[in-house]
Amino acid sequence: MKNIYACPHCSTVLNPSVKILLVARHHDRRGMILLSPQPGNFKYICDSTLEEGLKHGDLVAFSCPVCTQDLTSVSDHRFAELVLRSSGHDDRRVEFSRAFGTHATYVIDGNHAMVFGEDADEQDATNFFGV
Questions:
Q1: For 69, left (φ over 0), alpha (ψ -120 to 50), or beta?
Q2: Where are the chain's structural domains?
């Protein structure tokens, strides 16, 4: 079974094929974005008009393309949150940076976090555990 990413609000599978499909918004610009399902792979595909004018560190809002709910993490507003389902594991949380150009992703399983990205060391992972 491949990794399945789901909306934490409506449980819709967000990677029915190869990529994770989300809606991204920055101010009045909105569009679809495709993300890699591999933690630590920060490549993405989106319409260039969505990306225009973004500066390093600008916060991008992500939402579910089905229920339209905001995916901003309840633990830390600088991150977006998805549910990760894979064989041999209970559901886990994936928290990834909403800051444009910042590479930080956490896969959280109970009280443990796997850390991905060169910018993850600069983030405070304790927020994800309610500390």
A1: beta
A2: 4-129
